[in-house]
């Protein structure tokens, strides 16, 4: 069972990945359940965790912000730069946990943010490198190693403090 701190981080990561369109709402409900099991608790978190998979798509948009707020976590507004950066860090953490390959991480970052997000520019460049491997002198393992190093950098990048990432309090 994860520690409450780890569960809070995982819940926060799933919330931002959902708000950026990376994962379905049902995954947020699962993360809320996992957070409860790990010892986090709040009235809104309990309500969110009680949603069925069928209800998730309708209820998560309304229930997630208060659940995060009650836990002192950040609600990232859709399209915010802070939300995009948090989503990139969450994807990097998923790769480091073995949920994504380095190639998948680079592709998803490039697909989601292109070359427009400074924090992830290097991953977008590395995705381009995967596409031209047959014409260069680098191996897939070398590019994988660079992606992994970049994922480590992102995972260690400071996170936005708790509260609303769009400036609301």
**Helix/strand structural class:** mainly alpha
Largest sheet: none
Terminus-to-terminus distance: 32 Å
- Please report which band the strand proportion falls in: under 5%, 5-15%, 15-25%, 25-35%, 35-45% or over 45%: under 5%
The amount of helix comes to: 55-70%
Q: What is the H-and-E element order?
A: HHHHHHHH
Q: What average pLDDT do the residues reach?
A: 90
Low-confidence residue ranges: 160-169
Description:
This protein is mainly α and 169 residues long. The protein has two domains: 4-70, no CATH class; 81-156, no CATH class. It contains eight helices and no strands. Helix 3 (43-49) runs antiparallel to helix 4 (53-70) and helix 6 packs across helix 7 (121-131). The longest helix is centred in the middle third of the chain and has 18 residues, at 53-70.
């Amino acid at each position: 069972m994860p520690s409450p701190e780890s569960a809070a981080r995982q819940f926060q990561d799933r919330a931002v990945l959902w708000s950026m369109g990376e994962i379905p709402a049902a995954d947020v409900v699962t993360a809320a359940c996992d957070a409860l099991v790990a010892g986090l608790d709040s009235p809104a978190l309990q309500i969110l965790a009680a949603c069925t998979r069928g209800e998730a798509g309708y209820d998560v948009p309304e229930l997630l912000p208060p659940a995060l707020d009650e836990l002192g976590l950040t609600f990232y507004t859709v399209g915010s730069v802070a939300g995009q950066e948090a989503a990139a860090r969450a994807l990097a953490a998923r790769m480091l946990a073995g949920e994504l390959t380095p190639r998948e991480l680079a592709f998803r970052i490039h697909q989601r943010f292109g070359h427009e997000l400074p924090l992830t520019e290097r991953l977008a460049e590395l995705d381009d490198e995967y596409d031209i491997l047959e014409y260069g002198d680098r191996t897939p393992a070398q590019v994988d190693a660079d992606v992994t190093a970049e994922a480590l950098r992102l995972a260690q990048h400071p996170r936005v403090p708790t509260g609303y990432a769009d400036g609301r309090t």
